[in-house]
Specification:
Number of domains: 4
Largest sheet: 7 strands, antiparallel
Helix content: 25-40%
Distance between the termini: 58 Å
Shape: globular
CATH topology of the largest domain: Transferase(Phosphotransferase), domain 1
Number of strands: 21
Number of helices: 14
Structural class: alpha+beta
Strand order of the largest sheet: 12-13-17-18-16-15-14
Length: 468
C-alpha cells in the first residue's frame, strides 16, 4: 500500500480519511499538532460525533501509544479532569496505533488563555492549575516535561489535563523533592513575577498535599523555576539555528538563512531576488549609518523592519569574518526573551552572507514594533501606568540576570498596551552573580540617564532593587 501524505509530510491535504481496523472510518478535518513521521493530532468526525485523534507513526509508536493511554487512564481513575479516552484502535492495513478522545469544542491551551487574561484572571487560572497539579502529584502522577499546552480550558474555563504520554505513573503520592522540582518546572514556564509577586499562590497546593506552608519550600521552588527558565531560554534560542517544526534553516547561493516556518520561503526568496537585500528608493530609512542600516519595508504584504549590519572597512570585514555576526546574536536573544516573557518585535528571519565559509554582511528581519520610542512616549504620557510598564520591563532584565547592554530610551518601543525591547545584539547573561549585579547596575544607571530629574527620581523608585 503506497504511503499517504499524513505519514511523512508537513503539508497534508484536508480532509483525509482513516480506515480503522474493526472501528469504522474517521474523516480528519483539522490538524492540531504535527510531527512529520512521528505523531499527528487532529480533529475528526466519526459518524456524527466529533473526536480528537492521536495517530502514532514513529519507530516507538506502540510504546508511545500505550504510555499515553496508561497516563490518561490513571488520570481518569484518580478523578482528574481529562478528555475521556473513547477507544484504542489501529489504522487498517498499516497497523499504526490510534487513540480516540472526546473532542472539547472551543478549547484553548492554558498558555493561550494565560496570555490573553488580565492580572486578576491569571491568579484565578494559576490557582486552578495548582489545584489540578496537586491532585496529579497526590495520585503519583508527574509531568516529565511540564508544558502549559498540556492543559486545556473549555468555553466555561473548566480546566483539563491532557497528554498522558508526558506523565510518569507511580504507585504512591509524589515525594517532596520530585514535587518541588515539578512545580519549579511549571513556574519556569511563567514570568518570574507569577511566583515572586504572589508567593501565597502556593498555599492551595500545600493544603491539597497536606503540607504546612513553608518559606523553605517556596525558596526551593523559586530556585528550581529560575534554573529551568534559563535552561528553557537556551533551548528555545538554539532551535532557531536548526530545521524543526518552527524554523527553516537553509542555504541559498552565498547566503545562510534561518527563518520562521510561518514566514514563507517563497515570499522571502521573492523579496531577496527583487531587492538584492538593499532598501528601495521608496522605502523609509529608519537609521542610516556605517555600521548598520535599518529600513521599513513590506515582504509578502507584511510590514517589517530590516536591519543590515554593514562592513565599515577591510579591517572590520576581516574581524567579522571570524566572529559571530551581530544579526545572529540578535536573532538568538530575541528568541530567548520569549522564555523570560519580555516582549520584543517577533524575529522573522536572519541572513548571513558567506564566502568560502567566511562571514560578511548580515541581516535581521523582524516584525515592526508597535508604538514609539520611550524618549518620545514617556514625556507625553507621564501617567503612572506608562512608567510602571516601562520600569517593569527594565526590572525584568535584572530579575532574570540579563544585561541589555544599551538601555537608551530609543531601544524601548512603548504604546498603551505594553513595551517592546529592541537592539539586542549586546544582550547577555553573565556567568557569575557579582558580574551580573555589576552590569545590571550599569544597565539601570544608563536607563536613568535618559530622563530629566523628576522622571529619573520616579523611575528610580519604581526600579528599586531586584537584581538576579
Amino acid at each position: 500500500m503506497p504511503q499517504q501524505d499524513w505519514e511523512y509530510r508537513r503539508e497534508i491535504a484536508l480532509p483525509f480519511r482513516l480506515q480503522l481496523s474493526g472501528a469504522g472510518e474517521l474523516i480528519c478535518e483539522e490538524i492540531l499538532r504535527l510531527l512529520p513521521g512521528r505523531r499527528l493530532v487532529c480533529r475528526a468526525r466519526q459518524d456524527d460525533a466529533l473526536v480528537l485523534v492521536k495517530l502514532f507513526l514513529g519507530q516507538d509508536r506502540l510504546q508511545e501509544a500505550a504510555q499515553d493511554a496508561r497516563g490518561v487512564k490513571a488520570m481518569m481513575a484518580a478523578g482528574i479532569n481529562t478528555p475521556p479516552l473513547r477507544r484504542e484502535a489501529r489504522v487498517a492495513e498499516k497497523g499504526y496505533p490510534v487513540l480516540l478522545f472526546d473532542f472539547i469544542p472551543g478549547a484553548r491551551s492554558f498558555r493561550q488563555r494565560w496570555t490573553e487574561a488580565k492580572e486578576e484572571q491569571r491568579t484565578k487560572l494559576l490557582k486552578a492549575l495548582l489545584s489540578l497539579v496537586a491532585r496529579q502529584h497526590q495520585a503519583g502522577l508527574r509531568q516529565r516535561d511540564f508544558h502549559l499546552n498540556n492543559f486545556l480550558l473549555d468555553a466555561q474555563d473548566r480546566l483539563y489535563a491532557i497528554d498522558g504520554g508526558d506523565l510518569l505513573v507511580g504507585a504512591r503520592p509524589l515525594a517532596e523533592k520530585k514535587s518541588l522540582a515539578n512545580l519549579g518546572m511549571l513556574f519556569g514556564h511563567l514570568p518570574q513575577t507569577a511566583l515572586l509577586n504572589t508567593p501565597q499562590i502556593l498555599a492551595g497546593y500545600f493544603k491539597n498535599r497536606g503540607w504546612s506552608d513553608s518559606p523553605r519550600l517556596f525558596r526551593r521552588i523559586s530556585r528550581a523555576a529560575n534554573a529551568f527558565r534559563h535552561r528553557r531560554a537556551r533551548r528555545i534560542s538554539r532551535k532557531g539555528f536548526r530545521d524543526c517544526s518552527e524554523f527553516v534553516v537553509r542555504r541559498k547561493d552565498n547566503l545562510r538563512i534561518c527563518q520562521r516556518r510561518d514566514f514563507p520561503v517563497a515570499v522571502l526568496d521573492e523579496w531577496l531576488q527583487s531587492t538584492g537585500l538593499a532598501p528601495r528608493a521608496t522605502e523609509a530609512i529608519l537609521k542610516p549609518g556605517n555600521s548598520q542600516t535599518v529600513w521599513l519595508c513590506h515582504i509578502g504584504g507584511a510590514e517589517v523592519v530590516v536591519k543590515r549590519y554593514n562592513l565599515k572597512n577591510r579591517l572590520h570585514a576581516l574581524r567579522r569574518a571570524f566572529t559571530r555576526s551581530r544579526a545572529s546574536k540578535s536573532w538568538e536573544n530575541a528568541l530567548s526573551l520569549r522564555a523570560y516573557h519580555i516582549d520584543t518585535p517577533a524575529p522573522l528571519a536572519m541572513i548571513e552572507e558567506r564566502r568560502f565559509g567566511l562571514r560578511q554582511r548580515a541581516w535581521l528581519i523582524t516584525a515592526r514594533a508597535k508604538g514609539m520610542g520611550a524618549d518620545k512616549y514617556i514625556p507625553e504620557h507621564q501617567g503612572n501606568a506608562a512608567l510602571v510598564r516601562l520600569a517593569a520591563t527594565v526590572r525584568a532584565f535584572g530579575q532574570n540576570g540579563l544585561v541589555h547592554g544599551d538601555m537608551k530610551a530609543t531601544n524601548f518601543i512603548v504604546d498603551d498596551q505594553g513595551v517592546e525591547v529592541i537592539d539586542l545584539d549586546s544582550m547577555h547573561r553573565p556567568w557569575t552573580a557579582p558580574a551580573r549585579r555589576a552590569r545590571i547596575y550599569r544597565d539601570r544607571q544608563r536607563f536613568l540617564q535618559n530622563w530629566e530629574a523628576g522622571l529619573r527620581r520616579r523611575f528610580a523608585r519604581l526600579l528599586g532593587r531586584g537584581i538576579g
